[in-house]
Amino acid sequence: MLLTLIYTGTALWLAAYGLNAFILAFLYLRYRKRTPGQPQVDREALPDVTVQVPVYNERHVIQRVIDAVAALDYPRDRLQIQILDDSTDDTTSIARQRAAFHRQRGVDITVLRRPNREGFKAGALSWGLERARGDYVAIFDADFRPHSDFLLKTVPYFFDRPRRGMVQTRWSHLNGDYSALTRAQAMAFDGHFVVEQTGRDRSGLFMNFNGTAGVWRKACIEDSGGWESTTLSEDLDLSYRAQLAGWETLYLPGIDAPAELPPQLAAFKRQQARWTQGSVQTLRKLVGPLIQSERLNPVQKGMALLHLSGYFAQALMVLLLLATPPMLLLGGKPPALGNLGLALALGPPLVYALSQHALYADWGRRLLTFPLLTLIGIGIAWNNTIAILRGLTRWGGTFARTPKFQVVGKAGQWLHSAYRLGIDRSVIGEAALALYALAGTVIAYGAGRHGMIPFLLLYAAAFGTVAGIELFQAMSLHPDCDAVSG
After folding, report:
1. Which pLDDT does position 334 carry in this prediction?
2. Which residues, in sequence order, are CB contacts of 327 under 8 Å at separation 6+?
3. N or C, which end of the chain has less CB nearby within 10 Å?
């Protein structure tokens, strides 16, 4: 019957993403020690570098990031810093005052403002690039606090590779232990930056620029078509276009740049929705050039398509849930993937376990956060499914920023900030899906399909957890009331 076919096809498609996680874990284990040697640094031969910090309403963190980039250890006569400010609040005055302070100390730092916010972040980076004097461009989002030796550790990797267009570093976390929510996010990002990026880069697969904490060769940006705002993932788009044009990339997991994780679930959902929509738009934009490329072999093409379509897994999970109760009511029988399905489902947990083991001495304790990560990862599927539909039906869109609150370590408040987000309408869908999964559990029990009950209860718990946390955070009045603190 049709529902059984839909269920089977969806389950098999989801299994492909589980297999992809296993492949990347294998590539990481095989190639993780294949690291390029640290180039020698001759300060007299260092080239001009422009540091760009795109900013939009960042009053809580703007001084921190300006102080960090102004403290970069690099010859001052070859360092230009651009604060690309599109703000509409007092961020601009704070930035100008702090930039003036550092200019008095001999730092070439300027707050640049455009006539309008056209193209959002991509537009700001492109506008700043026209005014950049550096041969290389380092980019940091406002919530980052790069170490002072960042440029000395990254820029030399370009010297002996004239076709190396981009170097990406690992994100670390300023507030990873702030709450259970930030711990879950930290684990998710660690899996990407430790295992996935390393596996892709070291094995010759396409990797992506993560939008910040990286350095570009200016000539590469210009040769690849520049920053474009046709997608909400200008970073993913440009990095793929550059690699299609024959430019090389390099990922350096041993070099980190600390950043702030969103302490509010609504902010995390907004971030994920933007990345989801942008990645789907990038897939639409580049699927033709990828398939037609004569530079790439079939494995590179297949892995690139899995990478760009990775967020489809979220929509597939929603579809799988929606198809289950009516299939059971109509007497349909779900496919028995058996041990293969169980094995493929272990792919993502393996990625997270490997990353925690690589980074932390207490990695075993940190893995206790994995159940919450699982619930959140499934629970935001409805939010991301909506974003997938937007990505499939439109180009560009409003760049909804992820608010930052200067939350460092376990300190800092955000509940009373003007940047705090309200309740997102996706909560309605999450609550409805939680109830739908519970109804499906009753149906599965009555139909004697007891093997489906854990699956349905997991969905109910995941959507209920995400909706519950967001509602609790949105309605909390006291700054100590964090739904997932401790």
Report:
1. 72
2. 1, 3, 4, 7, 334
3. C
108 part of the active site: no
Q: Which segments within 244-318 are labelled E, that is strand?
A: 248-259
Residues 6+ apart with CB under 8 A from 350: 21, 22, 25
| 42 counts as catalytic | no
What number of helices (H) and strands (E) belong to the chain?
19, 7
Name the nearest CA neighbour of 210 among 182, 184, 239, 231: 239
Catalytic residue among 85, 86, 190, 256: 86
Amino acid in position 169:
T
Active-site entry in 85, 141, 143, 235: 235
Residue type, 407: V
Q: To the nearest whole percent, how much of the chain has pLDDT over 90?
A: 83
Residues 6+ apart with CB under 8 A from 416: 479
Q: Which residue numbers in the chain have pLDDT < 50?
A: 478-486
What is this structure's pTM?
A: 0.94
In 273-339, DSSP assigns E strands to: none
Q: What's residue 36's pLDDT? A: 86
Q: Where are the domains of the chain?
A: 2-28+309-475, 43-265
